[in-house]
Amino acid sequence: MPRSELEKMRAGEFFRVSDPEVRAEGNVTRDWLARYNASDAAGWEVRRSLLEERLGTVGVEAKIRPPFFCDFGFNIHLGAGVFLNFNCTILDLARVDIGARTLIGPGVQILTPDHPRDAGERAMGLERGCPVRIGDDVWIGGGAIILPGVSVGDGAIVGAGSVVTGDVPPGAVVCGNPARPVR
User: Fold this and answer.
1) What is the pTM of this model?
2) Which residues are known catalytic residues?
3) CA 183, CA 171: separation in Å to the nearest integer?
4) CA angle 123, 96, 162 (to 5 degrees)
5) Count of CB atoms within 10 A of residue 68's CB?
């Protein structure tokens, strides 16, 4: 039996973004995000229950300050003590793991979508997600962008405004566009 486009997406294969089932999941997330982003005055307990409603994993004391934006939510896994500041965007066509005690500054973008290199395939509306893994005790400065398929090792620091195009080793400090080691 052929797999659905949503099943293809979850398997990391190219899928059609315009598929009705995929769009329906996106609509559920859009409605959830409206509720979450309106909860700013409600307190952490209410926001935590909302996060647990849609995200894949929410570790103890994990917090996201609204407004927050994502594609689906169920592919996002937060470790204990994770903190995401205002205006973070996680495009989660694929799994995004954020390790324990990681701090993410305002306006950070974590992107998993990848598109075919062939223009004809792109014109067919195909897309896929490449997983992103961010380790424990990482600090990502405001406005940084983490590209599809990247891993950031435990204890690493990503400077504000950096564009991370490749893996960051544990304990490294990277800055710039593209992000390069500074120590």
Assistant:
1) 0.95
2) 115
3) 9
4) 80
5) 20
